[in-house]
Write a structure and sequence with these properties.
Elements lengths: L3 E3 L5 E3 L3 E2 L5 H14 L3 E3 L7 H10 L8 E6 L6 H15 L4 E6 L9 H13 L3 E7 L3 H10 L6 E5 L7 H9 L3 E5 L12 H10 L3 H11 L3 E2 L6 H8 L8 H8 L21
Parallel strand pairs: 3-4, 4-5, 5-6, 6-7, 7-8, 8-9, 9-10
Antiparallel strand pairs: 1-2
Helix pairs in contact: 1-2, 1-9, 2-3, 3-4, 7-8
The chain binds NADP nicotinamide-adenine-dinucleotide phosphate.
Length: 278
């Protein structure tokens, strides 16, 4: 499997990246360096993770050339709206210490506030001005995407959504793929926990000398999803990227698909409103 994918606007992005939600700023440098040494080149942060400055410092200290890195951040709910999006983007870029961003995403649609269209138009303008290589969304359901696609110009490259064996959003994935929108799985491991010792995943992994986490990550990749597992544990950071040397069979893929419980770990995006989360 190719390690990179070409997004709908021609930009190339690693299929497997590194999520930094809940990575404390004082851990960031060592976590980032371990991730780089293990082979990660894509990093997924957000205003709301309050660690953009720390990751910016780690990028600056790194010897990896900027053009080899793929940096994603996200526009927070409270900053939705045209002018506030431009302002929030510039502030994020400054905290990151970058002069361009690879990917900028709307963090939640907040449909009840009805501001995501003008928010996205601001992102389109930043994209056209060359400040962002690609723009996209997170947590958009089909109805939100239908509205976005009918009222804006640029098709999002990515929809980053909750996706793991207990919450399989294959219908939304099919819809997105029909529009050229790539799915990225967030909380791809369901935040660790019970899946890490799940009997079925242990049994599949034993065949390949792989852990349940590696089996899940491989399942995402073989299902054409980008994936951004997070860990602050050096051995896990390394483990999670060692997934390009085995292949799950069709039957094993199906067994994992069948684990679906339609069980979200977080709120339904239709219900999330501006100001809800601080
Ligand atoms: N767009 C959105 O709304 C949204 C929402 C949530 C997350 N995200 C993004 O998605 C990224 C990943 O999601 P996530 O952080 O929620 O959850 P996750 O990646 O599914 O799980 C992370 C948890 O699993 C543990 N873990 C990692 N690798 C492991 C392994 N090999 N074996 C056992 N345990 C392991 C980690 O522990 P340790 O760290 O202690 O090793 C951590 O507690 C985030 O960092 C963020 O970038 C986006």
């Amino acid at each position: 499997m190719e390690r990179n994918i070409k997004l709908n606007n021609g930009v190339v992005m690693p299929r497997l990246g590194f999520g930094v939600y809940k990575v404390d700023s004082d851990q960031m440098l060592s976590v980032f360096n371990t991730a780089i040494a293990s082979g990660y080149r894509a990093f997924d942060t957000a205003y709301f993770y309050f660690n953009e400055t720390a990751i910016g410092e780690a990028i600056k200290a790194s010897s990896v050339p900027r053009e080899e890195l793929f940096i994603t951040t996200k526009l927070w709910n409270d900053h939705q709206g045209y002018d506030s999006t431009i302002e929030a983007f510039n502030a994020s870029l400054e905290r990151l210490g970058l002069d361009y961003l690879d990917l900028y995403l709307i963090h939640w649609p907040c449909p009840k506030d009805d501001l995501f269209i003008e928010t996205y138009r601001a992102m389109e303008d930043l994209y056209k001005a060359g400040k962002i290589k690609a723009i996209g969304v997170c947590n958009f359901k089909q109805e939100h995407l239908e509205k976005l696609l009918s009222e804006t110009e640029i098709v999002p490259v990515v929809n980053q959504i909750e996706y793991h064996p207990y919450f399989n959003q294959s219908e939304l994935q099919s819809y997105c793929e029909s529009k050229g929108i790539q799915i990225t799985a967030w909380s791809p491991l369901m935040r660790g926990g019970e899946l890490m010792t799940h009997e079925k995943l242990v049994a599949i992994g034993e065949k390949y000398h792989k852990t349940p986490a590696q089996v899940i990550i491989r399942w995402h990749l073989q299902s054409n999803r980008l994936v951004i597992p997070k860990s602050v544990t050096p051995s896990r950071i390394e483990e999670n990227i060692k997934v390009f040397d085995f292949e799950l069979s069709e039957d094993e893929m199906q067994q994992i698909n069948n684990m679906n419980l339609n069980q979200r770990q977080f709120r339904d995006p239709s219900e999330v409103k501006i100001g809800d989360m601080k």
